[in-house]
């Protein structure tokens, strides 16, 4: 069975030009499905760091050809998730929960500043693109289409980075988002709803429409911090289930402060 949707696993590097509503893009590539399949099997204990696995094995399990399996595994290797050894196959490399905080420290160094520049320089054409993306996010939210919603979420962040002249930043952030999906599951259902995630983006869009760089930076930072803290809590909870709620909260705070300014 192919699993969809989204969090080592630190660093895999669309521009939007149409005036009309963008088409839905909920279908994952086979390589992405392979990556998510490995992630889910690691998280549920079906794949571990002590065993060896092969491309042929995954190809048979997924019922797809070896080429996309290799593609997905090469991305995982680049991300530091797996290690290939000649004549043995590949094995899983144990990640650290603190990688989530590390990832968000990098995103927060890029995205708030880009949002501020976007608020200063954004054109009406770019604002129309953002409104179209937000409308598609709303449609996915109302349909309870979580994979589709987060596809549009990524499109929105990408478009803001583009409007903020962060060409290389877009590449870095797209890679970091890939690593986040490998490190943990979505926070939706466990900690918050699609409606709550959607609402976090609205102050960002409002600041862009008002051409308010200070508010755009603050709104983007608030959104990233809220998401990062929830993902970190989820990762720490999974890896240290023995912690009490108070101990977990303290661990989340200390890990976040250590990695994020």
UniProtKB/TrEMBL annotation:
Pfam family for this entry, one: FCD
Alphabetical list of SUPFAM superfamilies matching this protein: GntR ligand-binding domain-like (SSF48008), Winged helix' DNA-binding domain (SSF46785)
Ranges where the HTH gntR-type domain occurs: 28-95
Keywords: DNA-binding, Transcription, Transcription regulation
InterPro entries in alphabetical order: GntR_C, TF_FadR/GntR_C, Tscrpt_reg_HTH_GntR, WH-like_DNA-bd_sf, WH_DNA-bd_sf
Highest taxon of the lineage: Bacteria
MF annotations from Gene Ontology: DNA binding; DNA-binding transcription factor activity
Keyword DNA damage included in the entry's annotation: no
Protein name as catalogued: Putative HTH-type transcriptional regulator YdfH
Originating gene: ydfH1
């Amino acid at each position: 069975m192919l699993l969809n949707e989204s969090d080592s696993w630190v660093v895999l590097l669309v521009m939007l030009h149409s005036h009309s509503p963008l088409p839905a893009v909920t279908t994952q590539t086979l390589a992405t499905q392979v990556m998510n399949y490995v992630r889910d099997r690691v998280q549920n204990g079906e794949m571990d760091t002590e065993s060896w696995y092969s491309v042929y094995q995954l190809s048979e399990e997924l019922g797809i050809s070896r080429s996309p399996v290799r593609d997905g595994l090469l991305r995982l290797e680049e991300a530091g998730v797996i290690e290939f050894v000649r004549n043995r196959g590949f094995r899983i490399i144990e990640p650290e929960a603190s990688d989530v905080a590390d990832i968000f420290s990098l995103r927060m160094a890029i995205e708030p500043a880009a949002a501020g520049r976007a608020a200063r320089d954004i054109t009406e054409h770019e604002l129309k693109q953002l409104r179209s993306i937000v409308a598609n996010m709303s449609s996915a939210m109302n349909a309870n289409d979580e994979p589709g919603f987060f596809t549009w979420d990524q499109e929105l962040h990408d478009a803001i980075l583009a409007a903020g002249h962060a060409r290389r930043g877009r590449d870095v952030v797209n890679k970091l988002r890939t690593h986040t999906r490998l490190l943990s599951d979505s926070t939706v259902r466990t900690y918050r709803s699609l409606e709550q995630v959607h609402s976090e983006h609205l102050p960002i869009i409002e600041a862009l429409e008002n051409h308010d760089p200070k508010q755009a930076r603050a709104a983007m930072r608030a959104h990233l911090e809220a998401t990062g803290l929830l993902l970190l809590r989820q990762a720490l909870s999974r890896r240290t289930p023995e912690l009490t709620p108070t101990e977990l909260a303290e661990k989340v705070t200390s890990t976040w402060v250590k990695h994020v300014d």
